[in-house]
Design goal:
This protein is an alpha+beta fold. It is 51% helix and 21% strand. Strands 5, 6, 7, 8, 9 and 10 form a 6-stranded antiparallel sheet that branches. Strands 1, 2, 3 and 4 form a 4-stranded mixed sheet that branches. The protein starts with a helix and ends with a helix.
Length: 386
Amino acid sequence: MYSLLQIVYYSICNIIDILKSPLFWIVLGIIYLQYRKVGEMEKGILGVHKKSPTLNVILSTMYGLAGGIIGSILIIYFGITIRAVDVYFILPLAILLSLIHPRFICFSYAGGIISIISLVFGRPNINVSEVMFVIGVLHLVESFLILVDGKGNRMPIFMEKKGEIIGGFTMNRFWPVPFTIFINAGSLYPTTVLAILGYGDFALSNFPEKKAKDTASILSLYSITLLILARLSQSYYIFKYIAAIFAPLAHEIIIRIGRQMEEKDFIFTPVEEGLRVLDTLPKSIGEKIGLNPGDILISLNGHRIYSNKDIEDILFFRPNYIWLEVYDIKGGFITKEYKDYKNGVTHLGIVVVPRVPEQIFMVEESKTIISRLVDRLKGKKSTFKN
C-alpha cells in the first residue's frame, strides 16, 4: 500500500509540474482555438454562448489533469516502459493514416498495424505488449473523460435524415492529458508526455447524457479487454497476435456500431400536434421552468401552438403571467407556469424542432486531403472528356 501511495504522490507531483512547461500552455492555446471555433457555430445557432471558450478550457484542463494522473498511476504501477523507437514508427504512420480519415490518427490503428508487421516479418522490432498496454491505458482514460465530461459542450443542430429534417446534438470536447511514462533508451528515465484527447459525437437517437455514458461504457470495455490481452501477451506469445489484431479491429467495429445506432429511431423529430423542444438557452424562461429536450409544447395561455410564430404572436403583448401545457416525456401531461409582473414575458428562450425549420445547420464530415485530391482529379478528367 505504501508503494502505491508513493506512485500516486509521484504521479500527482509530476503532472502538476508540467504546468510550468511552455508546451502545456501552447496545447491549451490550441484547445482554446478549437472551443472558440465551436463557440462561433453555437452562437450562430443559439445567439449566445452556453459556456465561454475560456470556461470550457478551464474545465477541460481540470478533467484532463485528473485523467493524466489516473493514466500515470496505471502505467507506473504496472511497470510499463516504452522504447523511443516504438514511438518513432507509430507516430508517422498515425499521421499518414489520418490522411485517409481523421479517426485513423488514433494509436489503435497505427499501433496495431506496426505490431502485426513486426510479428509477421520481425521488423521493425516492436515491443508489442508494452505498446498495446499504453494504448489500452490511453483509451481507459478517454472513456473516463467521456463519462464525466463528454456531454459538457452539447450543441443543438438540425440534420437531414431519410428525407426528413430532425433535431439532435453534437458534442465536442478536448482535453490536455499529461501522463508519466518510462522511456527505455539503454537506461530507464521518466518523462511526461502531453497528449490531446478529443471526443466528437452526434446524439440523434439518444439523449446526449445517455449517448456519452454508452460510449464511455463500450470504450472502457474495449480498454480493459486490450489491457488483459496485453498482460497475457507477456506470458503467452499467441496473445501478441490477438492483441495486435484486436486493437484496430475492435476499435473500428465500435465506431461502426455507434454510427448504426444513430441511424434509427430518431428522438427529436417534428410532431403533428404541438412543438417539440430541442434545447433551452442559459438563464432563459424555458430553463427556469424546467423544459427539457424532447418535451412537447401543446398550448400557451390556452392557445394551441404549432410553430415559433404562434409563440411570438402570444408573447407580443408581453403577458405578466403565462402557463404552458406540456407533454413531458418523463411524466405525461403537466402545466408549467411563470410570472414576471415587472417586465412581462417576451420570449421563452428555447430551440424547437419545427416542421419546416427557418435555418438548417447541415453537419457533414470534412473531406480528407486524399478525398479532395481525388475530387480534383475527377474534375480534371471530366473536363478533358468535355
